[in-house]
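call fold(seq) -> tokens
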Amino acid sequence: MKYRNQFFLAVVGCLISVVLLGCSTVKEIGKGFAGVSTQVLEDNRKDALKKSFALDYNRCYAKVKEILNEKNKEAYIYAQDTKEKLIAVYLSVTDTTPVGIFFTEQTGGETLIEISSPSIYAKEEIANRIFTGLGALVSPGPKENKIDVKEKSRN
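ret:
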């Protein structure tokens, strides 16, 4: 009887912990076990490489997927979530360094892309692929690549 009460208290304690910690913690543990967790990408988002493009969210998301799936590029998409506006990739099929691509809709039909990773090299490599690929599709906006006439005349 004593062990039955201890078992019952342990089960109740676990259930209370799950409720207090939130279901997302349990969900993230499951994702981590399955190898598809994006928590590390979200944690590193504060140090993300960022750039805005004059494309609406849906078109931008589709173009980024096209760039990642190009034949000569080895990026492997392991998770995508249109609701969370995220694509998570490994640098390549053999290099499982995670990289997250976050999308934020902005006013004027622009989309901000944030590239996040615990690896500086992986973050820069994927950012270079995406920013170069999207830059070839979209001409720079009035804020980007503007040369100050005064500065140019000094050189």
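The chain has six helices and five strands.
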